[in-house]
Amino acid sequence: MKGFVKNTIESSLILSYFRGPDKSQQSWAESSVLRIIHLIVNFPGKLLKSAYNKWENVFEHSLAFRLLKYLTDNMHLIIGLILIVIMAVPYHIWRNEYGAMLAAGLTALFFIRLMTNRESAVETPAIDYSILLFFVSLAVAASTSLFPRESLKYLVHYIIAFVFIMVIVSTIDSADKLALLIKFIAIGTFITALYGIYQWKVVGVAVDPSTTDLTLNPDLGGRVSSTMGNPNVYGEMLVLTIPFFGAIILNEKSWLKKAAWLAMLAPVILILFKTGSRGAWVALAGAVVVFVFFWDIKFIPVMIILGFIALQFLPAPIYNRILTIFSGDKSTDYRGKILTSAIPMLKDYWLTGVGLGPGVVSAIFERYKIFGLTKAAHTHILYLQLWLEAGIAAILTFLLLIFRMVRNAFEAMVKKRDPAANNMLFASLAGIAGLLAMGFADHVWFFTRIMFLFWINIAIILAVVRITGKNEDKGGADGNAA
Fold it and tell me: What's the confidence (pLDDT) of residue 330?
C-alpha cells in the first residue's frame, strides 16, 4: 500500500509539472517575440554605451560622473535606501508623487549603469511572461477605460512598480547583494515599529469608533497605524515584510547576529498586535506556515502545535479580538453590503472592466449600491476590485502570475540549489501569500505603497530565480570543462 501511494504521488502530472523543467518559460525565453522586445528595450543602452566609449576620457575626468558611477555599482544599496524611505516616511508627509520621483531617479542611475558597465543590460528574459501579460492587461484596461484620464494617471503607479522590478532583476546579480537588500527591508520595518511604539507610548492613540466596534472590543484600546495612516494598512505592510526576518535569521552564520535580528523582530511583532488588525494576525500565521512548508515541511505539525499553545498566552483583548472574526461586527456587515452591490456591476462589466483605478470603480459603483450603503472607496476584495477595474484578462493573468511564483518556490524546494537564496524566495512568497489572504477581506492595493511593496516581493522571487539559475549554469559549465 505504501509503495502504491508513493508511486501514485511520483507519477502525478501536477507534481511532475512542479518538479520538471519550466518548459513554458523556456519557450518564452527562446521566442522571437522576446528577442524583439529585448532588442528594443536594450537599444537605448547600446547607444549610451557607444557614446561613453567615444568620450570615455571626458566622462572619467568628471568627479560628479565618477560619483554617479560608484552609485550605479551599488544599486542594491540605493534600492534598499529607497525602500526604507517608502516604508518609514509618515503618512501625513508622504505623497504618491514621491514614488514617481524616486522611480525616475532610479531609472536615471540605471541608464548610467547601462552606459558604463559593458556587461549590464535590461534582463528581459528574467521577467516571467505572466508578469508581462498582466501589465499588458492593465495598460489595455487603462486605455479603454470609461474615464481614460483617471485610469492613465493610475497606471503610473503600476509603471513605477514595473520599473523597480526591471531594475532589481537586472542589477542584483548575486545572493549577497540580495541578502543585503532584504536586510534593508527588515531595517525599514524595524524603524516603522519604533515609530509605532512612539505613537502608542508617547503621543497616545485614541480609540476610533470607525475602525473598532466598541461593543465587541471594549478593551482593545487605540490601534497603532505607524507610518501608514491606517492600522489595517500597516498590518498589511508587516505581513509582507516580517517573513524576511525569518530568512535573515536562518541565513546568518553567527549566533550573535541571529540574536540581534531576533531582538529587532520583537518590537515588530509587538506593534503588529497593537494594530488590532485581525486580518493581519491571521494572515501572518498563514505566511509563517507557507514559509515553513517550503523551508522544511517536517516542521509544519510542530508549528501548528506551537500556534495553539501560543493562543493560550495571548492577552485577553487580543484573544477576544480574534474571536470576533467568527461573530461578525459592523465592518463585516458593511463589506457584505458592498459585495451585494458589486455582483450586479460585475455581471455588466465582467469582460472589460470599467477602467483602471479605484476612483473609476467608485464612480460607476454609485449606480449599483443598495439602500443603506454610503459611498464606498473600493470593494474590500482585491480580486473583485481587480476584475471590476481591468476585466477578465487581468484577473486571469494575475492568477497565472501567482501560480508561476508558487511553481518557482516548489522548484527551489525540490532542487535545493542555494539554501540561503531559497530562504529569501520562501520569505517573499510567504509575504505575498499572507497579503493575498488579506485580499479576500480588503482591497490591499488601495494604498499604493502596499501595492508597490507587493511587487518588490515579486521582484525578489525573480531575482532569486535568475541568480540560482546563473549559478547552476556556471556549475554545469565548470563541470563540463572539468
Answer: 67
